[in-house]
Design goal:
The complex is a heterodimer of chains A (663) and B (159).
Chain A: H1 2-29, H2 34-53, H3 57-74, H4 82-100, H5 108-122, E1 137-144, H6 155-164, E2 168-173, E3 191-197, H7 202-208, E4 214-219, H8 227-234, E5 239-243, H9 255-268, H10 277-304, H11 307-330, E6 332-334, H12 336-353, E7 357-362, E8 367-369, H13 370-391, H14 395-400, E9 407-416, E10 419-426, H15 433-442, H16 454-459, H17 482-491, E11 495-501, E12 505-513, E13 518-526, E14 529-534, E15 538-543, E16 557-560, E17 563-569, H18 570-573, E18 585-591, E19 594-600, E20 602-610, E21 624-629, E22 635-639, H19 641-650, H20 654-662
Parallel strand pairs in A: 7-9, 14-22, 17-19
Antiparallel strand pairs in A: 1-3, 1-4, 2-3, 4-5, 6-8, 9-10, 10-12, 11-12, 13-14, 13-20, 15-18, 16-17, 18-19, 21-22
Helix pairs in contact in A: 1-2, 1-4, 1-12, 2-3, 3-4, 3-5, 4-5, 10-11, 12-13, 13-17
Chain B: E1 10-17, E2 20-25, E3 29-33, E4 39-40, E5 50-54, E6 57-62, H1 64-68, E7 80-88, E8 91-99, E9 101-108, E10 128-134, E11 137-142, H2 144-157
Parallel strand pairs in B: 6-8
Antiparallel strand pairs in B: 1-2, 1-9, 3-7, 4-5, 5-6, 7-8, 10-11
The chains are: A alpha+beta (663), B mainly beta (159).
């Protein structure tokens, strides 16, 4: 029992530490943001409380000191500096060790706390806006949001705290309480009004609400008749509405609205449960098997021509698809879960390297399958390290080149069809293809007379044993890493590419499939063999004109709505026996701007494709990205769209030919 | 897995490929199946020409004839598919091999096993871990780890 509880605490701790880390990092960017200070304080407080409850006395002691320091910031006795953030992050990193009982013989933890204390005591006290000028009382109205009572809110304690601040004339507005049959017991339907001395600041009020999710508004008393204050008084908006969390704005006194929100919250917010990852994997496996069996059932039903059976099979098909979709949605994790790690890395490296860096993250809500996310962390860390170490120049070099001293690194993630694009962009010195080439020749990776395109030169950095840095630094440059990056991305059925401009910067683009489990596929047939094309890549299907039936040596192209699209003959590509029948179809597949046609004998239909990985023994078969099992139990191979497109690109460009003809 | 030390007796399963009798350590064998529909993998080469569905898994189907340089002798209804677990670059991988016939499980004494002759052999030396004499001719013990590792590295190198 205690073990279970401790396991729950550890899980909770992981979330809290993540939130703490995010809070601290956000705070570095916005040191004045009191809401962030409060969030950090709250997280610390929760860790301390749960830690003490589960018997982690040493942890509780450590956090207590940590928390006390943060309380000083919260009370305005100190301001947040970058040093404080760094030390706080270090202190945060000590927490897992404390929980696991890792000894600290060198007294590192104490040293961090002392350093933190020194920093905070040295901090300049914040001059709060002097409230002394305001003399009258302020009228405060507040209500508690959501299922406040269920979360353990104690309005009596809140009111006591206000009394300690000098609150008078406390009244309770019960007009928002619904009739008994629609009353949500966990929600707080009451609204309180009270008068506070005008000297009480917003920060003090927010402090009272630190452990409660409250809506409050404060009507400041009439200001003394000074010229400046009179100007202020002309503004009708003398009411300051402040929210402790980012919820849609709702004015507190409207109790009816309050109770409606309170009733909705338990259904929306409270319905999250934790599930061990293995259970999700097991569920996905079962869904995969179900989808395969469902295909088999559909086929048998069709053969039987039994209407009732066919109808049932169709319902099962629909159900299986729905089950598949919801299982996959469950496995989706936003990029955000990785981002804190990257921000820490950049923060740390920026210090070590002496390069000021602004690190921007776009699209951190982009979701990816959890397996993909897990495997993505290390490659992105490698790429970021390379950008920071090799890509970005020193501040002096940047100024000399007419760039701002602060380097810019951007990480962005976005959906593109059934894929996710992740870009890591820096505005550094860029890569020199000639230098890469020379280096590769020296390392014996390419022949001295090899002809390489610019893209091929950039791709050299992914070769094992290639390192561009003249001097090996401790951060990167040992020539390990980028080849591992490519291997990992390949393993995820993704692709990696580099664009770079000398003096302007480098962009590394990762293309990843949304999921590794199940996709919608188009089942096609070529010379009696069946293959799958990922549906997300299929743009349209056209008939192959009779004139194009025989391969043209100058290249095979179709004109589709005024644009030339190269096409590949799968029969030829896969060395199939026999002659094509006269009515062939062309499936146009696309990714981004590139398109290629694939000539097939027959389109069989759509198919729920449970992706099975190909063995290492078939790693050389680039045209195939995986396999699946069809309804009749045979295996069909999934064609690799990227590879087909690459093949299409190698065909000569007909528009060039057309121009020649025209000239 | 099929490293042979002088102390051990070896339990093997014997099979025929082409006209050659082979012995495979029984501990590597997972199951023996009747012929299954094989899906050809285009451009995969002669050693692992296809894949089969083994109880819901897509398993590569290898042809040891090519790894050992044994001529094809045609096939009949004794043909089977043997599902094996082999060490593939450090991971245990499931592979299937084609057998023209599967015979028996037998235990051979370590002293019976001779190393593969190092010169003048028709078979690549590192693909054989040993051979022994039996009443109906000599039996080859293929080195499955080496054979599949060689294919995996070939596959990884070919762009």
């Amino acid at each position: 029992m205690m073990d279970d509880m401790a396991a729950i605490f550890r899980e909770e701790l992981r979330d809290l530490l993540e939130s703490l880390e995010r809070g601290l990092l956000d705070l570095e960017a916005a040191p004045q943001d009191m809401a962030l200070v409060n969030q950090v304080f709250r997280d610390l407080h929760t860790v301390k409380g749960s830690g003490a409850m589960f018997g982690f006395a040493e942890l509780a002691g450590f956090i207590h000191s940590f928390e006390t320091l943060f309380d000083k910031i919260r009370s305005g006795a100190a301001v947040v500096t970058s040093d404080i953030i760094h030390l706080s992050l270090e202190a945060r990193d000590q927490i897992p060790g404390l929980v696991e009982g890792v000894p600290d013989p060198e007294g590192r933890r104490q040293a961090i706390l002392e350093a933190l204390e020194a920093q905070i005591s040295a901090g300049v006290p914040v001059a709060f806006p002097a409230p002394a000028a305001v003399q009258d009382v302020s009228r405060l109205t507040f209500g508690l949001r959501g299922d406040a009572f269920a979360m353990g809110a104690r309005p009596d304690i809140i009111l006591d705290e206000f009394r300690a601040l000098g609150a008078t004339g406390i009244t309770c507005d019960t007009s928002g309480v619904p009739p008994l049959d629609s009353l949500v017991p966990g929600a707080c339907h009451l609204v309180w009004h009270l008068d506070l001395p005008a000297a009480v600041t917003d920060a003090q009020i927010e402090e009272v609400f630190i452990f409660a999710d409250a809506d409050w508004s404060l009507r400041r008393g009439d200001p003394p008749p000074t010229a400046a204050a009179e100007a202020l008084a002309l503004e009708p908006a003398a009411t300051i509405v402040r929210e402790t969390t980012a919820a849609p704005p709702a004015a507190a006194p409207r109790a009816g609205v309050e109770s409606a929100a309170g009733a909705a919250a338990p259904q929306g917010g409270g319905a999250t449960i934790r599930v061990p990852a293995e259970r999700l994997d097991a569920l996905m496996d079962s869904v995969g098997e179900l989808v395969i069996l469902e295909a088999r059932l559909t086929e048998l039903a069709r053969e039987s021509r039994d209407a009732a059976l066919m109808a049932t099979a169709e319902q099962i098909t629909r159900l299986a698809a729905r089950l598949r979709d919801s299982t996959m949605t469950m496995r989706m994790v936003p990029m955000r879960s990785l981002v804190a790690r990257f921000r820490r890395l950049v923060l740390g490296l920026s210090d070590t390297l002496g390069k000021p860096i602004s690190f921007n993250v776009l699209g951190e809500d982009t979701e990816l399958d959890k397996t993909v996310i897990e495997k993505l962390a290390d490659p992105i860390v490698h790429i970021l390290r390379n950008s920071l170490d090799h890509g970005l120049e020193t501040p002096e070099e940047r100024l000399a080149a007419g760039k701002p001293a602060e380097g810019r690194v951007e990480l962005s993630a976005e959906h593109a069809g059934a894929e996710v694009l992740i870009r890591i962009r820096d505005d550094g010195r860029g890569m020199n293809p000639d230098k890469l080439r020379t280096k590769a020749v020296a390392a014996g990776l390419i022949a001295p007379d090899a002809v390489l395109t610019e893209a091929q030169c950039f791709a050299l950095i992914f070769e094992p044993g290639f390192s561009t840095a003249a001097a090996v630094t401790e951060i990167s440059g040992r020539g390990v890493g980028m080849d591992v990056v490519r291997r990992t991305i390949d393993g995820l059925r993704g692709a990696i590419s580099i664009e770079s401009r000398l003096g302007e910067g480098t962009t590394v683009t990762l293309r990843l499939p949304l999921t590794l489990a199940i996709i919608d596929g188009l089942l096609i047939e070529v010379a009696g063999e069946r293959y799958i094309l990922p549906m997300a890549a299929v743009q349209e299907i056209v008939e192959l004109p009779a004139s194009k039936l025989v391969p043209n040596r100058a290249g095979d192209f179709l004109e589709i709505r005024g644009r030339f699209v190269p096409f590949l003959r799968l029969r030829q590509l896969f060395a199939c026996d026999g002659q094509p029948e006269p009515d062939q179809n062309v499936v146009i597949v696309t990714l981004g701007d590139t398109r290629v046609g694939v000539v097939v004998d027959r389109i069989i239909g759509t198919n729920q494709t449970v992706i099975k990985q190909m063995s290492k023994l078939h790693a050389n078969v680039r045209a195939v990205s995986g396999a699946t099992i069809l309804g009749d139990g045979t295996v069909a191979l999934i064609l690799d769209v990227m590879h087909l497109l690459a093949l299409g690109q190698t065909l000569p460009d007909p528009s060039a030919r057309a121009r020649e003809v025209a000239a | 897995m099929n490293a042979i030390t002088p102390r051990d007796d070896l339990t093997v399963i014997t099979l025929t490929v082409g006209a050659q009798k082979l012995a495979i350590p029984a501990c590597a064998l997972r199951e023996i199946l009747d012929p299954l529909p094989v899906t050809r993998v285009p451009r995969a080469g002669p050693f692992v020409p296809g894949v089969v569905n083994v109880r819901g898994s897509v398993v590569p189907l290898a042809n040891l004839r090519h790894a050992l340089g044994i001529p094809d002798e045609g096939q009949d209804d004794r043909r089977r598919i043997m599902v094996l677990e082999v060490d593939l670059e450090g991971d245990l991988a499931t592979v299937a091999i084609m057998a023209d016939a599967v015979h028996e499980v037998t235990t051979i004494k370590a002293s019976q096993i001779e190393p593969a002759p190092s010169s003048a052999t028709a078979w690549p030396a590192d693909h054989i871990s040993g051979l022994y004499n039996s009443p109906d001719g000599f039996v080859l013990i293929p080195d499955l780890t080496n054979i599949f590792a060689a294919q995996a590295s070939r596959a990884a190198d070919t762009p």
